[in-house]
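Work Package 3 (structural annotation) set out to generate three-dimensional models for the target panel prioritized at the project kickoff. During this period the team completed the workflow that converts sequence records into discrete structure tokens, so that structures can be stored uniformly alongside our sequence database. As a representative example, we reproduce one entry of 653 residues exactly as it appears in the project archive.
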Amino acid sequence: MTQPDQTRRRFEEIAGAADTRSRTATGFLLVAALVMLGIHIMQLATFSLPSGQFRNFHLGFAIIIGFLALIERSGPEQSVRRTAFWLLAALAVGLMAYIHVEYQALTQVRSFLPNAADMTIGALLLLTALVLSGFQWGWTIPAMALIGIAYGLWGYLMPGDIFFHGGIAPQRLLGYTSIPYFQGLLGGLTSLSAGTIFMFMLFGGALKATGAIDFIVQIGFTIGRRSRAGPALVAVISSGLMGTVSGSTVANVASTGALTIPLMKRYGFKGEFAGAVEAVSSTGGQLMPPVMGLAAFLIVGMTGLPYNSIMLAALAPALIYYAYLMFSVQLRAVNLNLDARESDVLDDGPGLAEVAKGQWHLAVSIAVLVWLLVSGIPAGNSALISVLLLLGLDIVVTVTRGRFSFESIREALARVVNGLVEGARSGAAVATVIAVIGVLIELLTVTGFAQKLSFAMLDLSDGSLFTLSIVVAVSCLVFGLGLPTSASYFIVALFGAPALVETGVPLLAAHMFVFYFANLSAVTPPVAVAALVGANIAKASFWGTSFNAVRLALPGFLMPFLFLFEPEILGLGDDFGRQAIAVGQAIVATGALNCALEGRIFARISIVERVVLAVAALGLLYWNVQIELASLAVIALLAAWNWWRSRPARAAA
């Protein structure tokens, strides 16, 4: 099916053509999405609304769109469920209207003495947000928010110095969740969601609607046909680029993995390895600028640093991560004596240049986004400009391709509406869970629990940064076992990152440390949700897939320690030369470690050589100049010796 056919079918579904959806709900959803977009564009252009009112509109429309989307997905037989969602959507409209009308009184007259109506509205807003986030994201995060509320009420009953606090009165506690303090659901994270995250979700929706997924897969296929690793390289490239569009690890594995994993198995890779390649590649999509995972935007909210600083700091580590992964699949293909250049597993198709002729506007919009971010333009404004540019260029391309026919004009408008609505859906879903996370952050902060736990971690490590880093890393992986990446990040960032900063670690380096381990929990046993999805598609062992994934994601586990002990790798400071040295050192070290694990440099190496090479690789990552130089010398000597020994085999080949 061609891209225009796909877009038309999707537009027809949005318009209510699918039998299983409610046309009424879809119509309201279209209107709500377009109104929400209009408010956000107006605010970013004019800043005409007070911050609290803008946050109220953002969360209110997000809840309305969320419940309308749930009605769409409910079958005709689920009448009770649909009725309940309609009532909750209508309630959200009333809550949003009340806060908007009473905004001045709430902030100037009743900011510390809310009346009964204010308390009722605050409680109902909390209830609707918790219910919606539970249906959209699972009940773990709402349950944690409820636990935080209970802790705020009854903390005076808790034993021990860490858990005990004086308790918060119910009226004051409810104020911290939303109104009249405009914290929690309507706090700083919701402001970040409204001004930045929503625009990036909109950009992702526009990319999907204008054919970015097909373009990304085609890029992977074009490069894969020229490599021995073949389909494995397709998976690495396409899944990494897909992070720009989806923003979800599991969604990446499910979408690209359905195509790449069977291809890898047919080519000759084992199922466990194929599933692991896809899982690790998709996990890395959350680490790759310019559009990273949701947790990257949470760093902005937690630190106050601009998004472009975080994006630039994440670039070098992400490139090292993917360089290691590409090298891994190449080495495995050589060891298995596979060569995609001589195989028909990747059928001939259009070249990259041919595909780019029809999709050049996608690359232009992404390039403009990167340029705007690097130039220092606020992230939300940069994303909005890129969205408008992308959709405008897509209209020109679509209409020109159709020779200005009525059908091509209709097709162009359908793609625009599709992109805007898809982006609004994604942004609304993220806004709800971000707001609920904001409640938990607020309560853990005002009760003092986060600060006390941070000091406890410092005491446990006895001032040792290395010990503290191990404790924080393990905490991230443990919390990540049953939580989304964003939740895992913000929980540990509340107490772990401040503890790291207390030992002298730069603020961004501390949060990048937590960010990496929170993301890598997706491939860490015993849960490893990304590896689980990959194993299911590959019909392979979960444990085998997850252990392969840990081995392939090894740089992601090692580099965060460099963030702490050699923060130059993040580009912190003005010395570009030191960053280049740190990046080169990490590339050589991870490459050597890859060779040691795979048992090959230019030719097979012995067990003893593998052990020596692995030790030298880890030594090159150690923060001591003498050890690093000695390790580099050992790696160079082993590589030279292996190259010398492999001359006859290479000559014969």
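The mean pLDDT is 85.
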